[in-house]
Amino acid sequence: MPTREVSVLKKPIGSRAPFRGKTTARFYLSMKTFLLYAVTAIAEIVGCYLPWRWLKEGGSIWLLVPGALSLALFAWLLTLHGTAAGRVYAAYGGVYVAVAIVWLWGVDKVRPTLWDAAGVVFTLAGMAIIAFQPRV
């Protein structure tokens, strides 16, 4: 028997929403969804970056502890999205690309190219199409 998906956009945030109107509510929920994807991406990147530093740069083995905790947080955050896992992973991938490019700039100190920016625009467009599609 098929399961019914619950859209993040159809769930009320709380009983006292600080907005009026359907358009504002949808925007607010869309931003909440995007921010949850962004925090999820940061948790995954940190969880992979710390072991990378240990292996590639001879960092302390203690980098593995917060790295493992960050990856556990990443896995838990993925469960907070209110739709099928495959759709969550597909939409999350677009946000991951954007966060990775910001990481490139902020942490690796490498300025993104115009090609990087174009790639982010396309992947975020794909993410938006997948994550914010109308639910029937």
Q: What would your notes on this structure say?
A:
With 136 residues, the chain is mostly helical. The chain has one domain (22-131). The protein has 4 helices and no strands. Helix 1 runs antiparallel to helix 2 (64-78) and helix 3 runs antiparallel to helix 4 (114-131). It is a multi-pass membrane protein. Belongs to the UPF0060 family.
Produce the secondary structure layout.
Blueprint: H1 22-57, H2 64-78, H3 85-106, H4 114-131
Biggest sheet layout: none
Principal-axis shape equals globular
Look at the helices and sheets and give the structural class: mainly alpha
Q: Which H/E pattern describes the elements?
A: HHHH
Number of strands: 0
Number of helices: 4
Q: Percentage of helical residues? A: 55-70%
Number of domains: 1
Please state roughly what percent of the residues sit in beta strands, choosing from under 5%, 5-15%, 15-25%, 25-35%, 35-45% or over 45%: under 5%
**N/C terminus separation:** 17 Å
Oligomer: single chain
Mean pLDDT: 85
Please compute the radius of gyration using only Cα atoms: 17 Å
Family: Belongs to the UPF0060 family.
Keywords: Cell membrane, Membrane, Transmembrane, Transmembrane helix
Subcellular location: Cell membrane
Pfam family, one: UPF0060
